[in-house]
Amino acid sequence: VRQRQLKEGLSDSQFSKKMAISRHMWEAVLHGKRNPGYKVLSGIAMVYPDLTNTVLDIVNSKILKQGRTIN
After folding, report:
1. What is the C-alpha separation between 56 and 59, in angstroms, rounded?
2. Which of 13, 18, 11, 10 is nearest to 45 (CA)?
3. What angle do CA 13, 16, 20 make, to 5 degrees?
4. For 15-69, how does the pLDDT look when each residue is reduced to its tens digit (9 = 90+)?
5. pLDDT of 44-57, one tens digit each?
6. Contact of 33 with 5, CB cutoff 8 Å
7. DSSP string of 6-68?
8. For the purposes of burial, counting CB atoms within 10 Å of the CB of 2, is it exposed (0-12), middle (13-18) or buried (19 or more)?
9. How far apart, in whole angstroms, are the C-alpha atoms of residue 58 and residue 24?
10. Is 41:59 a contact under the CB 8 Å cutoff?
11. pTM confidence score
12. Contacts of 24 (CB under 8 A, 6+ apart)
């Protein structure tokens, strides 16, 4: 995702705005201070629809790790 962001010439501020999250949240994820949560993952899927299946796989694995099920 980061490579695509940079290839498109988007600053962290511009990219986070497209994802509808704060720049601070995006930078925390980039620097390993935060794991990407549902807001970040859904933002990535919104900006890059071709990554939606990958994002869904990540969300499902998070849910399974928490012992939840999807009905």
Report:
1. 5
2. 18
3. 130
4. 999 999 999 999 999 999 998 888 999 999 999 999 999 888 887 887 777 775 5
5. 999 999 999 988 88
6. no
7. HHTT--HHHHHHHHTS-HHHHHHHHTTSS---HHHHHHHHHH-GGGHHHHHHHHHHHHHHTT-
8. exposed
9. 22
10. yes
11. 0.77
12. none
Kind plus residue range of the DSSP H or E element containing 5 = helix 2-7
Q: Scanning the structure block, which residue is given the tokens 């201070």?
A: 33
Polymer length of the chain: 71
What is the rounded distance in angstroms from the CA atom of residue 49 to the CA atom of residue 46? 6
Half-sphere exposure of 20 (CA within 13 A, CB side): 9
